[in-house]
Design brief:
- By secondary structure, the protein is an all-alpha fold.
- 70% of the residues lie in helices and 0% in strands.
- It has a domain at 57-178: Tetracycline Repressor, domain 2 (Orthogonal Bundle), CATH 1.10.357.
- It has helices at residues 11-29, 36-43, 48-54, 57-73, 84-88, 98-109, 113-134, 137-156, 163-178.
Length: 181
């Protein structure tokens, strides 16, 4: 008897597999590689499962964004000023394929209204967490922008901007405003 073309999985397992496949496609080839065919081939799934679980490709992209944002939003309990920089540059955010996924997502956020709305929701939650530490919403946005810029440098030139160097630069720039961070 021939092997079935696709295996059956519990719905939540299959949905997770599709998210992981979407992340892998983004990491491998950017938004251009985020195609239904590529994702289904990566996940070993039929085309209809993306629509079934996510309503379509944009819905899956939103789920991938949520999965990428999860490490950014987790682990803020008890973070104060002394731990702020370490939290902003937590190693989980820099584990592959995360950086390449984020580079692809950032470009798409600017042109995809569905993804932009999802990003604004997560970014608001992130900014709220940082504001709780620094005591001001406007300053929180500036701190995130600084961290994002250093993170981007780290992604594009890791031999020049190491994680330790990025943290040192962030501390140096924030010290006059926040003291020892």
């Amino acid at each position: 008897m021939a092997e079935p073309r696709f295996r059956r999985y519990a719905p939540e397992v299959r949905a997770g597999m599709l998210v992981e496949a979407g992340m892998a496609c983004l990491a491998r080839g950017g938004i251009g590689a985020f195609t239904v065919d590529n994702i289904c081939a990566e996940a070993g799934a039929s085309r209809g499962l993306i629509a079934h679980h996510f309503g379509g490709k944009d819905g899956l992209l939103v789920a991938v964004h949520a999965a990428a944002y999860a490490p950014v939003l987790e682990g803020w309990e008890g973070v104060g000023l002394p731990g702020l920089v370490d939290r902003l540059f937590a190693p989980a955010q820099f584990t592959e394929p995360g950086p390449r996924v984020w580079l692809a997502l950032w470009g798409e956020i600017a042109v995809n209204p569905v993804l932009k709305a999802e990003h604004e929701r997560h970014y608001t939650a992130y900014r709220t967490k940082v504001a709780a530490v620094v005591g001001d919403d406007v300053l929180a946005g500036a701190v995130i922008a600084l961290a994002d810029g250093l993170w981007l440098e780290q992604c594009l030139a890791p031999d020049v901007m190491s994680p330790d160097r990025a943290k040192a630069a962030c501390r140096m720039l924030l010290r006059p405003i926040l003291g020892d961070v």
